[in-house]
Amino acid sequence: MKNDDLGFKYPPIKCSYNRRDVLLFANAIGVQQDELHLLYELQPKFAMFPTFPVNLAYKRTDQDVFDFIARNITGTSPQPDVPGVPPFVPQRSVDGESTTHQLRGARLRNTQQGGAMILESEGELIDVKTNMAYVKPSSTSFGIGQGGYGGPRGPSKPSTSIPKRARDAVHTFKTSPEAGLLYRLCGDYNPMHADDEVGKQASFKGAILQGLGTWNIAAHGLLRELGDSDPERLKLYRARFKSVVYPDDELETRMWIVKSEGGFDHIVFETIVKDDGRVALCNGATVKVVMVTNVGT
Length: 297
Prior knowledge:
Blueprint: E1 8-9, H1 19-28, H2 56-59, H3 68-72, E2 93-102, E3 107-113, E4 116-122, E5 125-126, E6 133-143, E7 169-174, H4 179-183, H5 196-201, H6 211-226, E8 234-241, E9 250-261, E10 264-273, E11 279-289
């Protein structure tokens, strides 16, 4: 393979959601009772948590559970082959990095690193009636043991430096033993997050928490601690997955404001597992509006 397939596009994916999906997601990532506008549809300022759309590519239009493995193996319907690349097997994959940028078919890049296949994609969530783009999500997945097919090595990505000073904010969240079982109802039905035996087959000690579960828990911590739980204030959010998290782990997200410019705060963060100090999320960065002024107020 002579290139990294930049420009390959999957067909558009139709997605839908309802208020119940929005409420379930907020509960699954630890939104609290004093943030009722994110938890109760009759609250006057009811709003969707801003990273909710990242799960729509999993859920699509389904209102019931589905076979996650069959749906996500490339080279099978509905996932077409990527030219020059072997099928991507989701039960031997873990999350690498994810980004959501508020603002048609997903664009794909495929590379390899050592024995792993690296699958990068980006897309836009658009309203089919107005053609307006609302969110631009991108993600990276590592196919464990799926490299070695002659693909190119991907470019190195810059690291985010953590300031050597006191943190500006910290958010702690204790996950429950059922955390992965709850979060899967948002659309990620990979059995690796429900069945200990499947987790062990992937060389983990049991079922693991969804990478996007950890990612969204951290997003909530950032918005709660530094954004007054106002979903309008989160404009860009990204983080790289470094270590797996298990249900019942306690997570601590540490945040630093590194720059304030043009009405925006630029924040870097990391999320650790408190019990043993391993870093779950690194290279975390977000852009937050310092103040939101609504027209007419």
